[in-house]
Amino acid sequence: DTAVSQTPKYLVTQMGNDKSIKCEQNLGHDTMYWYKQDSKKFLKIMFSYNNKELIINETVPNRFSPKSPDKAHLNLHINSLELGDSAVYFCASRQGLAGTYEQYFGPGTRLTVT
Amino acid sequence: QQQVKQSPQSLIVQKGGISIINCAYENTAFDYFPWYQQFPGKGPALLIAIRPDVSEKKEGRFTISFNKSAKQFSLHIMDSQPGDSATYFCAATPYGNKLVFGAGTILRVKS
């Protein structure tokens, strides 16, 4: 009964490849996020979706394309992977834009680009 | 531009002692200040949070102190235990949407 889940947990790939990370939440939330945690553990927001609509895009390279097929899912597709994309990617969710501010994070996907 | 500054980077505390982590922010639009705890290989977990209309919030051994005029807030962990050893992040958000995180504090509690 995991609240926010991500797949895969680990992803190792070569430069230039395209890969996707999936996120699902069963909390009934309608706002979801992608955060990136770099090698120094710094956490930074990348994207936010509310009811399948993109509401935050934090100057992320357009090689990164989020997609929200429904309120419970938010996927992240990355094209032409670069060494600098190696990081841990966290999905998070929150109950609506007008509700509580609490964000709940998934377990993370560790992406390693070689 | 680092909007939330966190200190110290690392902290070693004896079991039973008090751990104190400090954060300062710049953006006066911030209206929610959570603390997250992260264990190795896990996602950040919400620990405790405060709104700027109160100066202190306590939940068990964890207390947030908030100073609106100084734009500072801190996490106090009373009776620190080895199981509290983790990385702690302060954060802030304007209107509840994107979280802006501090750089994190690695806490080690020695038994």
Helices and strands, with pairings:
The complex is a heterodimer of chains A (114) and B (111).
Chain A: E1 4-7, E2 10-13, E3 19-25, E4 31-37, E5 43-50, E6 53-57, E7 64-70, E8 73-78, E9 87-94, E10 103-105, E11 109-113
Chain B: E1 4-7, E2 10-14, E3 19-25, E4 33-38, E5 45-50, E6 56-59, E7 62-67, E8 72-77, E9 86-92, E10 100-101, E11 105-110
Parallel strand pairs in B: 2-11
Antiparallel strand pairs in B: 1-3, 3-8, 4-5, 4-9, 6-7, 7-8, 9-10, 9-11
Structure characterization notes:
The complex is a heterodimer of chains A (114) and B (111). Helices cover 0% and strands 56% of the residues of chain A. The model of chain A has no long low-confidence stretch (mean pLDDT 93). Chain A has strands at residues 4-7, 10-13, 19-25, 31-37, 43-50, 53-57, 64-70, 73-78, 87-94, 103-105, 109-113. Chain A starts with a strand and ends with a strand. In chain A, the strands form 2 sheets. In chain A, strands 2, 4, 5, 6, 9, 10 and 11 form a 7-stranded mixed sheet that branches. Chain B has strands at 4-7, 10-14, 19-25, 33-38, 45-50, 56-59, 62-67, 72-77, 86-92, 100-101, 105-110. Chain B is 0% helix and 53% strand. Chain B starts with a strand and ends with a strand. Chain B is mainly β and 111 residues long. At the A-B interface, strand 4, strand 5 and strand 10 of A face strand 4, strand 5 and strand 10 of B.
